[in-house]
Amino acid sequence: MGSEKRKFERYVFHNNERIVVSLTLDNGGGTVEARVLTISQGGLGVVIEKARIPDLKEEAILFLKEVDGKGRIAELAGHSLKVKWILDYKPLNNLALGCEFIDLNERCRLEIDSFLTPDQHDGATGRSEN
């Protein structure tokens, strides 16, 4: 089996680190909340309630309206994301989404990098290269 290659290292949020974002569809759809599971300079991994966004498709553009839960990444608000993949396991009520940042600025990239630094998390990181 081949190993997965990632362009960016990602941070996996622990269960006690509840990060919630408000996302707006660029097609005029309403705003929905999603829980952030992972973050990297490349994008976000989120979980969203299936019923809140039933017609979402890959390549859809989402606008990151608000970030709640981690002050350091609040600056991500206002950036756009492109849905790269959707995991829809039918027995569950949620969708998992892999979203890529479209217009992330350097300042936000540096904030994201701080999640990968052990001293920012009492010596432990949620680093994942898988």
Characterization of the model:
This protein has 130 residues and is mostly beta strands. It has a single domain, classed as Thrombin, subunit H. The longest helix has 9 residues. The chain is globular. About 5% of the residues have low confidence.
Structure, briefly:
The chain is mostly beta strands and 130 residues long. Helix content is 7%, strand content 40%. It has one helix spanning 106-114, and strands at 10-12, 20-25, 31-40, 43-49, 61-68, 80-87, 94-101, 127-128.
The CATH architecture classification is Beta Barrel
How are the strands ordered across the major sheet? 2-3-4-7-6-5
Give the helix tally. 1
Count of distinct strands? 8
Q: Biggest sheet, in brief?
A: 6 strands, antiparallel, barrel
Tally of domains = 1
**CA-based gyration radius:** 14 Å
CATH topology type: Thrombin, subunit H
Write the CATH homologous superfamily. predicted glycosyltransferase like domains
Strand content: 35-45%
Structure class: mainly beta
Strand-helix topology:
Elements: E1 10-12, E2 20-25, E3 31-40, E4 43-49, E5 61-68, E6 80-87, E7 94-101, H1 106-114, E8 127-128
Antiparallel strand pairs: 1-3, 1-8, 2-3, 2-5, 3-4, 4-7, 5-6, 6-7
Supply the key terms:
Thrombin, subunit H; 1 helix; 130 residues; 6-stranded antiparallel β-barrel; single chain
